[in-house]
Specification:
One of its GO terms (molecular function) is transmembrane transporter activity. It is built from 15 helices and no strands. It is mostly helical.
Length: 355
């Protein structure tokens, strides 16, 4: 628990600490249970609903006792189960990455997609696949991590220019500019030839369609490591919310927290991008939704984001299957549509606050 601070009632540090400590144990656990139910419902919908019809009996058998000679159960094993697992892993990673990056930067507009981290990972993976011919997941996954780290460094460097430093709006604008440039680079690399474009165009927007289980197995340990780091950062992010000087006064090593947070974000974002491509807005919307439920306490906000993000991604994927049936919309398009309005509202609120 964040230690008490002797501060006047009107002091901003005291107000921040009161917001952090407002969620009680019973309320927090009740929220966890509710989000677990939502996640279970999302998984069931993802398994049951697709561009084609699979009988419910085949859905059940395809999950628990599959017979690949039956078409419906084969669809479950080859398509829907890997797709659902991909949504769980990528959604969890993106939601936690957004929560951590917002906490460590104290920037409500921070998100791996908006800051260009997803696009950097995607561009690096396309370079490995389409230009270097490195098609093994245990090789090109490292390009995803390097691309994510480089993009984050570039965006922060550009956003930090000027006397006022790295403001939330400047970082968001720098991230969007970097994302656009990286998307153009990715598209140019995909247009190398028709075969390259047809095989790897998935990396332009992000999708859960046709995910190879080998990729999931390779990325899962890195996502798992990122999850553990993010969960461990809850108390430290609470301290950072009080300001760097106060955090140091509480005995926190601010530099170490930032380094560990950066490692967690790179692992989570790189893993999510390798699994599902550059999906945007999940890391922006989910922490804000979790904050509405859990308050500002990162000991609760991070677990809430962990459960809420995969639910959002799976439900968005189901919507994409239904809107264009019998074709499908890529989940990255749906999440962009869902996240655009909250992003506009957040930017307007930040600009009004700065006037």
């Amino acid at each position: 628990m964040t230690p008490a601070i002797d501060a006047p009632p009107g002091d901003p540090v005291a107000r921040t600490q009161r917001r952090i400590s407002q969620v009680r144990l019973g309320t927090g656990l009740a929220g966890i249970v509710g989000l677990l139910v939502l996640l279970l419902v999302s998984i069931v919908l993802s398994l049951c609903i697709g561009s084609g019809t699979v009988p419910l009996s085949d859905v059940w058998q395809g999950v628990f006792s599959p017979d690949r000679a039956v078409e419906g159960q084969l669809i479950m094993q080859e398509l829907r189960i890997p797709r659902t697992v991909a949504g769980l892993l990528a959604g969890t990673a993106l939601g936690l990455a957004g929560a951590v990056i917002q906490g460590v930067t104290r920037n409500p507009l921070a998100d791996p997609g908006l800051l260009g981290i997803n696009a950097g990972a995607a561009a690096a993976v396309v370079f490995a696949l389409g230009w270097l011919g490195l098609t093994s997941p245990n090789v090109y996954i490292w390009f995803g991590f390097v691309g994510a780290a480089l993009a984050a460094t570039v965006v922060y460097g550009i956003g930090s220019l000027g006397r006022e430093g790295a403001t939330p709006v400047k970082l968001a604008l720098a991230g969007q500019a970097t994302s656009a440039a990286l998307l153009a680079l990715t598209t140019a690399m995909l247009l190398k030839d028709t075969e390259t474009y047809d095989r790897y165009r998935f990396w332009q927007v992000g999708s859960l369609i046709g995910r190879d289980t080998t990729v999931l197995w390779q990325a899962a340990p890195f996502v798992g490591a990122g999850v553990l780091l993010a969960l461990a950062l809850g108390p430290q992010l609470n301290a950072l919310a009080l300001g760097d000087d106060v955090a140091r006064g509480l005995g926190q090593k601010v530099g170490t927290i930032r380094v560990v947070s950066a490692v967690a974000v790179v692992l989570l974002t790189g893993g999510a991008t390798v699994i599902a491509g550059p999906i945007a807005f999940v890391g922006l919307v989910v922490p804000h939704a979790a904050r509405m439920l859990a308050g500002a306490d990162y000991r609760w906000l991070i677990p809430y984001s962990l459960l809420l993000a995969p639910s959002l991604l799976l439900i968005s994927d189901v919507i994409g299957r239904l809107l264009a049936r019998p074709a499908e919309l890529q989940v990255g398009i749906v999440t962009a549509a869902v996240g655009a309005i909250p992003f506009i509202l957040l930017v307007r609120r930040r600009k009004m606050a700065e006037l």
